[in-house]
User: Which sequence fits this backbone?
Protein backbone atom coordinates (compact mmCIF):
# COMPACT_ATOMS: atom_id res chain seq x y z
CA UNK A 1 0.00 0.00 0.00
CA UNK A 2 2.98 2.33 0.36
CA UNK A 3 4.87 1.43 -2.81
CA UNK A 4 7.29 -1.11 -1.38
CA UNK A 5 7.80 -3.96 -3.80
CA UNK A 6 7.60 -7.41 -2.26
CA UNK A 7 8.53 -9.10 -5.51
CA UNK A 8 10.98 -11.92 -4.88
CA UNK A 9 10.59 -11.62 -1.11
CA UNK A 10 9.61 -14.57 1.05
CA UNK A 11 9.61 -15.41 4.76
CA UNK A 12 12.95 -16.69 6.05
CA UNK A 13 13.60 -18.50 9.30
CA UNK A 14 16.25 -17.21 11.63
CA UNK A 15 18.07 -20.55 11.34
CA UNK A 16 18.32 -20.07 7.57
CA UNK A 17 19.75 -16.58 7.94
CA UNK A 18 22.22 -17.64 10.62
CA UNK A 19 23.42 -20.58 8.47
CA UNK A 20 24.34 -18.14 5.69
CA UNK A 21 26.84 -16.44 7.97
CA UNK A 22 25.11 -13.08 7.76
CA UNK A 23 25.84 -10.36 10.28
CA UNK A 24 23.61 -7.49 11.32
CA UNK A 25 24.30 -3.98 12.49
CA UNK A 26 21.00 -3.82 14.35
CA UNK A 27 18.39 -6.29 15.58
CA UNK A 28 15.08 -4.68 16.47
CA UNK A 29 12.65 -6.64 18.61
CA UNK A 30 9.05 -5.53 18.45
CA UNK A 31 7.33 -7.13 21.42
CA UNK A 32 8.34 -7.98 24.97
CA UNK A 33 7.99 -11.74 24.41
CA UNK A 34 10.40 -11.69 21.47
CA UNK A 35 12.80 -9.44 23.37
CA UNK A 36 13.15 -12.08 26.08
CA UNK A 37 13.61 -14.95 23.60
CA UNK A 38 15.85 -13.11 21.13
CA UNK A 39 18.97 -15.15 20.37
CA UNK A 40 22.49 -13.79 20.38
CA UNK A 41 23.59 -12.58 16.96
CA UNK A 42 27.16 -12.83 15.67
CA UNK A 43 29.33 -9.77 15.31
CA UNK A 44 28.90 -6.33 16.81
CA UNK A 45 25.10 -6.28 16.68
CA UNK A 46 23.23 -3.53 18.53
CA UNK A 47 19.93 -4.71 20.01
CA UNK A 48 17.07 -2.20 20.03
CA UNK A 49 13.60 -2.77 21.47
CA UNK A 50 10.48 -1.12 20.08
CA UNK A 51 7.42 -2.47 21.87
CA UNK A 52 4.36 -2.51 19.61
CA UNK A 53 0.89 -3.96 20.07
CA UNK A 54 0.50 -7.08 17.91
CA UNK A 55 -1.92 -6.19 15.09
CA UNK A 56 -2.61 -9.88 14.53
CA UNK A 57 -4.44 -9.84 17.87
CA UNK A 58 -6.75 -7.01 16.80
CA UNK A 59 -10.44 -7.75 17.04
CA UNK A 60 -13.43 -6.29 15.29
CA UNK A 61 -14.55 -6.05 11.71
CA UNK A 62 -12.20 -6.74 8.81
CA UNK A 63 -11.76 -2.99 8.31
CA UNK A 64 -10.92 -2.47 12.00
CA UNK A 65 -8.30 -5.24 11.87
CA UNK A 66 -6.76 -3.78 8.70
CA UNK A 67 -6.59 -0.37 10.40
CA UNK A 68 -4.60 -1.98 13.24
CA UNK A 69 -1.96 -3.14 10.74
CA UNK A 70 -1.89 0.28 9.09
CA UNK A 71 -1.48 2.00 12.47
CA UNK A 72 1.51 -0.22 13.20
CA UNK A 73 2.98 0.47 9.75
CA UNK A 74 2.63 4.21 10.35
CA UNK A 75 4.10 3.98 13.85
CA UNK A 76 7.17 2.13 12.53
CA UNK A 77 7.53 4.76 9.83
CA UNK A 78 7.36 7.57 12.42
CA UNK A 79 10.20 5.97 14.35
CA UNK A 80 12.35 6.41 11.26
CA UNK A 81 15.72 4.90 10.70
CA UNK A 82 17.64 3.29 13.49
CA UNK A 83 20.32 5.45 15.14
Assistant:
Amino acid sequence: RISISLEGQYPKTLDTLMARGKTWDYVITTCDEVKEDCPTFPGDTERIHWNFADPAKAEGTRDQRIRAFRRLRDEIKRRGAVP
Observations:
- The first strand starts at residue 26 and ends at 29.
